[in-house]
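Quick question, first post here. What does this chain look like in 3D?
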Amino acid sequence: QVQLVESGGELVQPGGSLRLSCAASGFTFSNYPMSWYRQAPGKERELVAIISWNGRTTNYADSVKGRFTISRDNAKNMVYLQMNSLKPEDTAVYYCTRSSVYWGRGTQVTVSS
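> Answer (accepted):
Ran it through. Tokens below.
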């Protein structure tokens, strides 16, 4: 069955960096675009970034453009989210998803001094 497992979230100071990882299994990974979403306390889940099946096309939420980079390694069935210049408002649970149908359990990112 489809499994998505996120990792890499932690407490980081404002201005810091983190790289989130998502390990995918149970499907032909290279056939699908992949996305990262996030959900902050009391807010709706929002799209952060999306990457095409071959990695050549990416799109980002305006709030993270220029700071976050989504990438993938089809040989390893992995998708990543490099997050730089983190702000307190980036604090959220970050989720990896395939087609917004299959979701991981999420990884907590907290940006605080």
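The chain has a mean pLDDT of 97.
The chain is about 0% helix and 50% strand.
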